[in-house]
Amino acid sequence: MKLTDVLILGPEELQIVCEEFPDCKVDRLSSSDTLIQQYRITFELEEESSYYNFLLDNRMAMSSHNFYYRVKIDKIFSERIRKRKLV
Q1: For residues 85 and 44, which has the higher predicted lDDT (pLDDT)?
Q2: Fewer CB atoms inside 10 A, N or C side of the chain?
Q3: Residue-wise DSSP of 6-17
Q4: How many angstroms separate the CA atoms of 22 and 73, rounded?
């Protein structure tokens, strides 16, 4: 499955994402030269949950537009994330 997400990241976090998903396509959306930038990242995944687990494990979940939206809108997803945090 193809997944596209918008993330707000620093250079180190972007490097971690690119190492985990080496075939990803990265587009910088920010026009400024600040350290923290907004990026559109597109890649192929077999399972969407593995991406969200990666974000949680690397403390990048709240920088993800998709993750934030899913937590706010999708009650089942939100409960699954809460249970994962408690473990």
Answers
A1: 44
A2: C
A3: EEEE-HHHHHHH
A4: 30
Distances (CA, A) of 39 to 36, 50, 55, 77, 85: 10, 20, 15, 24, 26
Where residue 64 falls (left for φ over 0; alpha for ψ -120 to 50; beta otherwise) is beta
pLDDT digits (tens, 9 = 90+) for 25-41: 999 998 888 889 999 99
Rounded Cα distance, 42 and 45, in Å: 10
**H-type alpha helices, the chain:** 11-20, 48-57, 65-73, 75-86
Closest CA to 63 of 40, 31, 86: 40
